[in-house]
Amino acid sequence: MIGISFLLLVFNFFHESSAQNVICYYDSSAASLDNPLTPENLSVANCTHYTYIGLGLTAKGDLRLLHESYDKTTGFSSFQNLRSSNAKLLVLLGGIYESSSTFSNVVGTYPDTLINNIALFLNRYNFDGIDIDWRYPASRGGKAADKANFQKFVIRLRARLNMINKLLVISVSPTKSIFTAAYDSITLSLYADMINVYAFNFTETIETKTANLAPMYSNSANPISVNSSIVDWLSTKVRKSKINIGVATYARTYTLTNATKNILGSAVSGPGTMGPNSKQAGYLAQYEFCSLSGAYFNTTDVATQTIYYTKDSSWISTETADTLIQKFSYVLDNALGGVAIYTLDWDDWSNGCGAGEFPAAALAQQYFNYGSSSP
What distance in Å separates the CA atoms of residue 219 and residue 325, rounded to the nearest whole number? Predict the structure, then answer.
């Protein structure tokens, strides 16, 4: 693999300094882990936008706090200290904590209630904007009318947010068959300030074979990739400067059906190694992965520009510094808006791996602002 310092040197030679977005998600559930991460420790990530994952919906369009006792007493107020002249603060509505059917019913039946509640919440808790993360209109329990209803909702929400000077971010699917049924891309392009494409973890069904977390390019084992997703999105004529590529900081883990068949596309019997702190089957935080990676054999897949790790029946896919740099370069080469790092609490926030705190965010800042005096 080409060394990081050499790649940065090449970048400095061919590119002038840019001002891409480095959006960083933080899930407030991390504050309740055995080894917790709280907002007080996030500032060193030096992001342009911090997004607090913390809001869900009720059936009639009210907002519910995902971790109410922490969010109200400590989380929101501590998060506000991250604001600076260079950093804005957003709050995410939905994501993995909210069903598509709930969004579908609320946006279709109580859109004005939801819009009013969003505006009141942003003012009350002093956030700079909202990230609407509905996964996804017209699928996963949604209905065909979602696309038209969401289009109207976005236009009306934009008008309301203009009145209180707040940002509107829409997080979207990377899969063409899903996003064409879900969104009117011209509406998103016109009315959203940013569009975050979750360009990782592309499988939408129960996984029966190994798959790379975020292949840069497609092959038979990974038909959907970062490149194919962005090409598909740009073909809708969406403004490229509003597109941010989502990059994951976690590792995906699998248990192979047969330990001797361990290439891409090999059969799996289920999720693999679970982290001792994150405690989610099939996932490892970066700070958990690096502590065991030395015992694994790693394989570079040139076609997809990825690296995967194997040991006995364990199979792991994750980003590395080199694969992240490929994605950051892609952002610059295609004049995209920037990157959205998902999430800070999955990254190596305590420098346990020895590459510094929040290395994904730090690398993005270094790469996008290399040679610049900007922080």
Answer: 20
Closest to 118 measured CA to CA, from 48, 197, 61: 61
Task: Give CA–CA dist 143/128, Å, rounded.
Answer: 31
* Spatial CB neighbours of 191, under 8 Å, sequence gap ≥ 6: 154, 155, 158, 168
**CA-wise closest residue to 104 among 72, 135, 62:** 135
What is the model's pLDDT at position 264? 92
At 204, list the tokens.
């939408």
| Mean pLDDT on 127-135 | 98
pTM listed for this prediction: 0.93
Work out the average pLDDT over 39-61.
97
Q: How many other CB atoms are there within 10 angstroms of residue 220's CB atom? A: 8
What DSSP string runs through 244-295? EEEEE-SEEEEEESSTT--STT-BEEEE----TTT--TTEE-HHHHTTTGGG
Whether 240 and 231 have beta carbons less than 8 Å apart is answered as no
**Tokens standing for residue 7:** 């790649």
Backbone angles phi, psi at 256, to 5 degrees: -70, 145
> Could you tell me which CATH number the domain at 4-249+319-368 has?
3.20.20.80
How far is the CA of 223 from the CAs of 176, 190, 229, in angstroms? 12, 30, 10
Q: List C-alpha distances in Å: 236 to 136, 176, 186, 202.
A: 18, 10, 8, 20
Distance, CA of 134 to CA of 94 (rounded, Å): 6
Q: What is the average per-residue pLDDT within 337-364?
A: 96
Query: What distance lies between CA 313 and its chain's CA centroid?
Result: 28
